[in-house]
TrEMBL record:
It comes from Embleya hyalina. This is Uncharacterized protein.
Amino acid sequence: MTRPHDVSPPAAALPAARGAAPVLRLVPFAFTRAFGRPPAGVWSAPYVLRRSGSRAGPGAAAALSWRVVVAAAPRTDGRLRLGSIDRPDEGVEVDPRGDVGPVPEWARPVLAGTTGAGGLDLLVHTDLPECAGLSAAVPLACTAALIEAAFHDPEPGDAHRSRIRLTDSPLGAVALFARPGHVMVFGSDTGAPSHVPFDPDGLGLRFVLAVPRRAGGMGDGSIAGPVRDALAAGAIEARPLPGAGGSTIAVVPGAALAAVRRALVHTRTRAGEPAPRVLSAALGSPCTRVA
C-alpha cells in the first residue's frame, strides 16, 4: 500500500501483560507490514448474542468473549484505507466524502461506523468466520466509530454516536456498554437498555458454538440434529443461529462440555459431513482501546 498523507503520532504500546491474547500482538504487527508504519492505537470489541426477542422488538443480549480487533492510525487526507487479516487480498481505499462505490462485505460495517470526519488506516481481525451465524458487523461498526472519535472528534470519547449509526442499535449498545456478569435488556422504544445480573461463569456455564465446515448437506436434520444432540448430551439450552451456515450455539455446564463437544461433532460426521469447528466462550467485556 502507498503511504501519502500519513500522520505520525506515537506508536501504540503493544499489550505486554502476561496472558495477553496473541492476536493483540499479531494485529499491530500486521498493520505495520500492511501500511508501512505502526498503528497509533488498537481497539477490541465483543461479538453480541441476542438471548431473546426479535430483531425489531424487545429482548435481551449479551457480549461474548469472541472479539474483533482493529489497529488504526489517522491520516490527514480524509481517505480511509481498510485491510483485513482474514481477507488479505481485499484491501479498500475510499474517500468517504464522495461516491464510495462497491466494497467487500466485510468492510461495509467499518465504513458504516464512520462519518467521514477524518482519514484513517484500519486493519481488522475477527475471531469468528463469516459463516458462524454471529455477525461481526456490530463490533466492527462500534470500533470504527470509537476510532474515528479518538483521532478526529473535537470531543473525543463520545461513544454514544456510534449507537445511532448501527442498523441494530440495541446490540450496538451492548457492545459499547456491557458489564461483566450481566446481560442487557432493551425494550422496543428508544430508552437505554438496562443491565440485569447474569453470571454464567459463576454458575460454571460456557457458550459453545459449532460452525459447520460447509453449509447444508444434512437435509432437514441440519438444524434439528445438532440442537437435539447437544441437549441430550447435557446442554441446558441450544438453538440454531440465523443464516445459511447452519451453526448451533448452546449453553453448557462445565461438567458436560466434553460430552456436548463430542455430540456436536458426531452429529455432522455421522451424516458424512466434515467435523465442525467447536468453539467456547464466556461473557465478554465492552468495546475498549487496548493499546
